[in-house]
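From the methods appendix. Each design record in this collection lists the tokenized structure first, followed by the designed amino acid sequence. Records were kept in a plain field format so they could be parsed without special tools. The example shown here is representative of the layout used throughout.

RECORD:
FOLD TOKENS (403 positions):
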């Protein structure tokens, strides 16, 4: 077997050879954004490419039409490495989160590694994970896959995500849960007969304000975030509303703090129900966890970025940055060692989940991000497959952090 360094060079050349096709697929997905759980064309395009290169593919997978599992086996006995793809878009802003880059970078890394698999021990999997943004029935697909045991034979998993500004080998993601609240009251003429009504909108407004009043008491060290909207608030101003509804999200870098935040929101609604004489019902979604870090995997991605001459933020600086969003990949990091590097595709900082960012994925910067992401994941895969000691170190750290 050739040595690790020359295999890492070879796998970069494989990505170079694939780039025209990868760029084309990235742009087609970018121009034809599909919402979560509806990513039929996007998943078909990625699966077609994997099949063309000899992957064995299950699609649909895990009882989800737009999920897939693609496997390419090498020599017996090595690690199983799962590279994750996302390809869902956002309402109104298309690929404003750049998942067209995530999907193609994952497929590109997988195919590049497959070209060397006759010399490598192990298996490369490319998993298509729908609806990361939570839209539709497949929202939180990675949690569903983790619960279904998809990762039980996997040793390490990773994906890359595009971002604005400088790259980061790791990120901090918040645990999140969603709460839906519905108040029921009683309709009445809003002037003549108001005293016979029970005003559900008043209950919703009181809930909203009670949650605001509680914000000051939230744990700042846990990066608590509470955000919400009133989704229903009556049908006409001359009718006392008999139905009002709210939707809230609560997030924290400390997964164990989330139930406290949920309780605060629900208690605010309970109080409002008593105050207004309305009844209240609520549902809480299972939610997502915050992510477990893995320093060893971070160092491997730093090595790959260094070799590619790609700049990234100092991980020490990143570690103290307040976390912004959440991802269902965080749940994966609790069942298998995993990492979610962020690859910068724009020079300037811009808002994610925006039309501007969707446009950025279609520029030369977007192409470069795809290339860097695919190469870094392919290089790290080759390294883990050819240096058996690495997997043991990654696993040891994972077990210690999971305690
Ligand atoms: Zn997003
Ligand atoms: Zn995203």
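DESIGN:
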């Amino acid at each position: 077997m050739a040595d690790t360094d020359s295999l890492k060079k070879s796998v970069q050349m494989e990505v170079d050879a694939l780039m025209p096709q990868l760029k084309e697929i990235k742009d087609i997905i970018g121009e034809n954004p599909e919402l979560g759980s509806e990513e039929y064309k996007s998943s078909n395009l990625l699966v077609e490419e994997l099949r063309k290169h000899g992957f064995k593919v299950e699609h649909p997978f895990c009882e989800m039409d737009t999920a897939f599992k693609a496997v390419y086996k090498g020599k017996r006995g090595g690690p199983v490495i799962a590279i994750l793809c996302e390809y869902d878009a956002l309402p109104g802003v298309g690929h404003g989160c750049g998942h067209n880059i995530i999907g193609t970078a994952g497929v590109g890394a997988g195919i590049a590694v497959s070209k060397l698999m006759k010399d490598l021990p192990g298996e490369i999997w490319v998993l298509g994970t729908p609806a990361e943004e939570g839209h539709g029935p497949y929202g939180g697909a990675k949690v569903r896959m983790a619960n279904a045991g998809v990762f039980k034979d996997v040793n390490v998993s990773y994906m890359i995500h595009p971002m604005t500004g400088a790259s980061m080998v790791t990120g901090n993601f918040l645990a999140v849960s969603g709460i839906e609240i519905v108040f029921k009251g009683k309709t009445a003429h809003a002037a003549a007969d108001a005293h016979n009504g029970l005003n559900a909108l008043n209950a919703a407004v009181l809930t909203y304000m009670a949650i605001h009043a509680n914000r000051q008491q939230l744990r700042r060290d846990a990066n608590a975030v509470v955000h919400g909207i009133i989704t229903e608030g009556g049908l006409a101003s001359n009718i006392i509303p008999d139905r009002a509804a709210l939707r809230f999200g609560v997030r924290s870098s400390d997964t164990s703090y989330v139930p406290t935040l949920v309780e605060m929101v629900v208690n605010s609604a309970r109080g409002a129900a008593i105050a207004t004489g309305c009844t209240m019902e609520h549902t809480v979604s299972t939610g997502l966890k915050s992510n477990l870090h893995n320093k060893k995997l971070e160092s491997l991605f730093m090595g790959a970025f260094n070799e590619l001459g790609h700049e990234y933020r100092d991980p020490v600086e990143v570690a103290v940055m307040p976390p912004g969003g959440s991802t269902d990949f965080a749940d994966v990091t609790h069942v298998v060692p995993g990492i979610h590097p962020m690859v910068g595709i724009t020079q300037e900082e811009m808002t994610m989940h925006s039309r501007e960012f969707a446009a950025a994925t279609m520029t030369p910067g977007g192409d470069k991000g795809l290339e860097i992401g695919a190469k870094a994941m392919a290089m790290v895969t080759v390294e883990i497959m050819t240096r058996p000691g690495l997997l043991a170190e990654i696993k040891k750290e994972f077990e210690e952090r999971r305690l």
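APPENDIX NOTE: Residues 97, 99, 132, 161 surround zinc ion (ligand 2) (CB under 6 Å).
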